[in-house]
Amino acid sequence: MLPDLNDLLGTARVVSLPLVTRFRGIDTREALLLEGPQGWTEFSPFVEYDDAESAAWLWAAIEFGWQQTPDVVRERIPVNATVPAVEPAAVVAVLARFPGCRTAKVKVASLGQTLADDVARVREVRSVLGPEGRIRIDANGLWNLDEAEHAIHALAEFDLEYVEQPCASIDELAEIRRRTHYLTVPIAADESVRRSDDPLAVARAGAADILVLKAQPQGGIRAALSVSRQTGLPVVVSSALDTSVGIAMGAYLAAALPELEFDCGLGTASLLAADVTTEPLLPVDGSIPVRRVVPDAALLDQHAASAERRDWWLERLARVYEVVAD
Ligand SMILES: O=C(O)CCC(=O)c1ccccc1C(=O)O
Ligand SMILES: [Mg+2]
């Protein structure tokens, strides 16, 4: 059951939040927030995504605002620190924003950087976290097969918990998994789940050991829970660099999973220099609470997007609504 478009437009607020450090090539995160009968919710597909891909994000936003959240089995979610592709000298300051986090996810394979840059960054993260820290890396599919094999070989000495999306395609993931099997570094799939027509294909191909699930791109909490159930693979719930409102959606997904073996990528409010609430879902003692988030009126005003960007988002909402309604 779909609410009327006018109900969505009636409460919509568009914000533009500055990031602490550049991430995925952006320094501000734009998001559209909506208030449904169950609470505030978020629609924030990345600006370059088309309407067809954004439909899952809108369905997720509507589900979270208009339907009750599923039963939860935990009240706090252990989270990882997320380390953008920064210089080694900046690593200490990044990790300090994630108090109590024993796990770090390090971005690698960034445009304009070399494997030596990645090795230096991961070495510094290992040195700060110590031998008991857990380190995972995320290449966002940017390596080809040989680059991935070489890089995983070079980075394995830092004891990797897993490698997220080393290559772009499912076939490549399956092949790199075979090639690096001897290193015993598990392979996780992210884009191959959230940007694929068939989120189960990567599991069916035996191309990943772990799935990264993001609530908005997966089409909501229930759809993501279904992927987890149907594949039986261990899951890491992650944010899409959402505001605290969207992170809450991810937190409810993580809280509803029967098993949660790995720390989740839901500490990303720490990458924002501003948020929409005075009580953001920031990590404390390495975890975030599971609760809904209510935006603060003054912060919504303070971080309101320009009139031009607001119109762009409202028009996008209306177009994507038609895709969902079909
Ligand atoms: O998983 C995390 O630690 C944080 C989330 C994250 O990395 C991310 C955030 C926005 C867009 C893509 C990604 C990604 O996992 O590739
Ligand atoms: Mg990823």
Structural class: alpha/beta
Termini separation comes to 12 Å
Can you write the helix and strand succession as a string? HEEEHEEHEHEHEHEHHEHEHEHH
Number of separate structural domains: 2
**Per the principal axes of the C-alpha atoms, what is the gross shape?**
globular
| Poorly predicted spans | none
Keywords: Lyase, Magnesium, Menaquinone biosynthesis, Metal-binding
Active site: 107 (proton donor), 214 (proton acceptor)
Cofactor: a divalent metal cation
Pfam family, one: Enolase_like_N
In short:
With 326 residues, the protein is an alpha/beta fold.
Which helices and strands appear, and what pairs or packs with what?
Blueprint: H1 5-11, E1 13-23, E2 26-36, E3 39-43, H2 51-66, E4 76-78, E5 81-83, H3 91-96, E6 103-107, H4 115-129, E7 134-138, H5 145-155, E8 160-164, H6 170-179, E9 187-189, H7 191-194, H8 201-204, E10 210-213, H9 221-231, E11 235-237, H10 244-256, E12 287-289, H11 297-302, H12 307-325
Parallel strand pairs: 5-6, 6-7, 7-8, 8-9, 9-10, 10-11
Antiparallel strand pairs: 1-2, 2-3, 4-12
